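Hey team,

Filing this mostly as a record. A colleague (T.K.) asked me to run one chain through the structure pipeline before their review meeting, and I want the input and output archived in the tracker in case anyone asks later how it was produced. No errors, nothing strange. Just documentation.

Input sequence:
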Amino acid sequence: ARQYSEINNNSWIVLPLHSTLRLSEQDKVFDYPPDGVRKCIVSTNIAETSVTMDGVRFVCDSGKVKEMTYDPVCKMQRLKEFWVSRASAEQRKGRAGRTGPGVCFRLFSEKDYTAMTPYSKPEIERVPLDSLVLQMVSMGLPDARKFPFIEPPSPERLENSISSLKEQGAMAEDESLTVTGKTLSNLPVDVSIGKMLIMGSLFHQVESVLTLAAAMSVQSPFTNKAYRDQECVAARRSLDSDHGDPITLLNAFREWLKIKTQDRDNSRKWCRKRGLEEQRFYEIIKLRKQFEELLNEAGLFDKRGEEGMTSAERMARHGQLRQLKHMKRNMKKQERKRKTLRVGETEELDDIDDNEPDAKDIDFRLKNDSSRVRQLLESSQAVSYNDVTMLKLIMGSGLYPQLAVADEFNSYKGGQDQLFHTRVKPFNVLHPNCFFATHPEVLQVDGLDIVNVPGFTTKHPASSKHQMLVYLSLLETTKPYLTASLRMPSLPTLLLFSHNLDTSTAIDRVVCDSWLEIKFAQAEDGMRQLVSAVKLRSLWDQLLHMKLSEEEDDRTENMRVIERKLSTGLIEFVHNDTVFGVKRLLPADVKELYVGRNHAFREDIVNPLSDFEPVAHPTKGGTRLTPNVTYGCLRESNVIDAGLWVCPECEEELYSSCLDRMQHMVTCGQAKQEEQTREEEKERKVEQQETNPLARLWTCPVCGQCFNYTSGQIMKHKKVCV
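Output structure:
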């Protein structure tokens, strides 16, 4: 169309219309063309309904539409081109002739029109059903498969949704809701986002998680111009985070709030310079507020009281509100001024007056005073590296099992050609707008970090720096893309979040969910990491049940102790130097992976990991030590179950089996932890005695714990501990 316009002395103004354009650029389709110039709008099906453009006299209908579908097997969204339905074709025809006579040219035959479906495919066949099944079970329906849908989805889709809910911990094996599932059913959000909100409430990261969840639930504020225009790329480079795209979104939101707080620059101008759509930030603010209210209703978030204003501040705020309300009333009276387009204008040009009042900005300032904006700014930043680590763990727990591992030949490829494999969909690529697509070296293991250990190859080297990706969704257009990806350390991610962990007899190999194999350089490292992971998972589940349970008695102080242990343990577990290798297992490898049920270990052993009664796994063989860990079920050439071993903690020499070694590790770890706890308690009491000489030693008759409290603190504790 533009080439035709250039040949005919620029007699056309060609304007695109699609959802990724900035709103100001989308509004240009309503403006007037100059005299003697024709306006040509090239649009997606965004203009198919609810849009009336004055002056449209001709419509050219291709008969095609790009529609988003969902593959429940691969858990992937596909943007494919389809023939429209006859109802959609009639709707498109109505774009012309609404304000005057019009003509519709259909670029397909009558035979094609007859072959079209009468109506578009219903939404229940195009979206994931996880949230729907969760709501149905929470309403008391025993089996979602027997529900009489008006347009029933396929049985395979329902089965995949039930399996997905089990993997996410929302549904038990008997298809009843877990404690997490009951809470998720009360949050009308996507299951992954809901899990992130719940997990964020367990730690002191709920404010940042609220912002992240809102930012990941709306369309990205980064427009196409942010990646194509070199000036925009240079301007927004400071916002990029090498941790991944979600942290980049958090940085962009925080910098935008700084502009709103300082009032020294125009936020609209700041966004346009970086290729950002400011409307998305306003949507994030509104959605964040809704998430906050949902968590507050569920009892997972105590809203902080707003700081009291002085008399001068209240007067200033009152005057500001009067002025803003007056501006809003005037804007409602005035309709948007339709401008005259310029010949040769494209979507890249922008002639917005930065001093012109913005309705969205007025609404934002009406609902958020300066103190509220400062509070949002403080709560939306990760202060330290430990805060970022906890945020990544929270997002990983919410987005699991959406994990991707790098192809073993990625070190020989560029960023756009690097491949990543998920459990159900191999050979995916990074989205072109992803940070890692332009910085692939961040994900690769440096040669200096590779350790030469016998038994490891160059394809699967031994290192302590292996990483993997956690992603928001899989999107297939021309290729299957990973979107909104976040890099995570491989070992803690797999050991903490995998649904099933299968080990060898010596625990030098651990298979995670039957698709990734972790091979340790030393078997002692495997035992130590497995014991730590099981302990942390147990604390995490215990804290989660205490937080989500309805019982309020005697849990506040215990929750603080468990939360402190868990937070410290998670940081230490993530930052370790264990040397290991990661290998993706192919279907042929999985067939020869397990020993089978005829090689089960005896069931009368003492379980070193938990109080779970050891039982033989019915299909894999080996012995289940926890609901997630199956010991000794992997095939191996050399089985060494006993030998001389030196404990790394107490340096005691033992001639024992692997299970006995794990039991000794657990005992040593508990003794060391108890000693450390006693030392910390002693130091805390000494510090409290020095700071407050009125404190005295007191033992609570209800919980039995000993405190160094003042009389006022004792009374407060008695009110809580009842």
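Quick notes for T.K.: The mean pLDDT is 82. The radius of gyration is 30 Å.
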